Amino acid sequence: MSRPAREYDESDVRVRPSRRGSRPRTKDRPKHEDAITARVVSVDRGRWRTVVDAGTEAERAVTAMRARELGRSPIVPGDLVGLVGDVSGRDGSLARIVRINERSSFLRRSADDDDPTERPLVANVDLMVMVTAVADPEPRGGMIDRCLVAAYVAGIDALLVLTKADLRSPEEFLTTYAPLGLEHVVTRLERPEETAPDQPAGIVGLEQLRKRLTGHVSVLIGHSGVGKSTLLNALVPGTERATGVVNDVTGRGRHTSSSALAMQLPGDGGWVIDTPGVRSFGLGHVDPDELLDAFADLAALAAQCPRGCTHLEDAPDCALDALVAAGGAGTAGPARLASYRRLAIALRKNDPWQL
């Protein structure tokens, strides 16, 4: 005898719950209140080298990756960040950067003046140290002018360091910037009669530079071959930044430092960040209206120009040429005016409304 057909109801149907969307979404991000603060000292292929508890017995180097919630926010040497995860610093350990603390300054540059794309360099520095040689390679005032503009826009102080003064007197070059009141330090190698027997030559002016850097977070910027690495190796023994020579044909230095590196000065004297030697310092990220204010000596004279004056060479009734030629207001001279105009023309190409 056959069994009667069974009637089915909803209790016979099993519905497998979907895992997607099973957890309610929330816009609240984790606060990571347990994150510890570290300073970024270098960046290499998606990994950030940081230092935790700097200057204490618990100081340690911690390698970290960027947390997904930070997106593509730039993280650069000098940044103070929040770390979670494995912050022990043991070999093979990896922490996560979950927060970038508010910056006191942010130094940027672009590849060229006609490229408005910003390239972040360093953060939280309060002193830009512009290193240039008085010879081998020849000094370039245009580079210093560009660095001064970048420092002004970033709101940080500037210091000019002239190296290799044993090859040539720096006085002639300094006359260009003396009217600006730009602080400077001159360094040179010791002469044989100044060196103790059986001792390598030291650097005259090094202690003056060390005193100026103490208590600051500084960034060193300069062309390749000007002696940045030599200064750093003397300031921070054991750093062993590679040093190079200048090409006899091109007169330019060979790149010896390939990445920015933050180092702590001995005795808790502050931090110094070495940047790779640069051949150019683009200002494409700078607003043209900010440029004249960065040339403080020229800005004082420009007050005598007619309203709406562009201060360029073809500007009608521009007063700058005559005032600069007369040495008004302690101006640095025609070289500074020419430098300003070159930069102004280049920056205005990025903003057609400024032409």
Descriptive account of the structure:
This protein is an alpha/beta fold. It folds into three domains: 36-100, Nucleic acid-binding proteins (OB fold (Dihydrolipoamide Acetyltransferase, E2P)); 106-274, P-loop containing nucleotide triphosphate hydrolases (Rossmann fold, 3-Layer(aba) Sandwich); 288-354. The protein is 20% helix and 22% strand. The protein is built from eight helices and 15 strands. It has helices at residues 141-154, 171-174, 206-213, 228-235, 288-294, 296-302, 320-325, 334-349, and strands spanning 36-44, 47-52, 60-66, 80-85, 95-100, 106-109, 119-123, 127-133, 157-163, 184-186, 188-189, 203-204, 216-221, 261-264, 270-274. A six-stranded mixed sheet has the order 10-9-8-13-15-14. Strands 1-2-3-5-4 form a five-stranded mixed barrel. Strands 6-7 form a two-stranded antiparallel ribbon. β14 (261-264) and β15 (270-274) form a beta hairpin. α1 (141-154) packs across α8. The longest helix is centred in the C-terminal third of the chain and has 16 residues, at 334-349. The radius of gyration is 28 Å and the shape is flat. Residues 244-256 have low confidence and may be disordered.
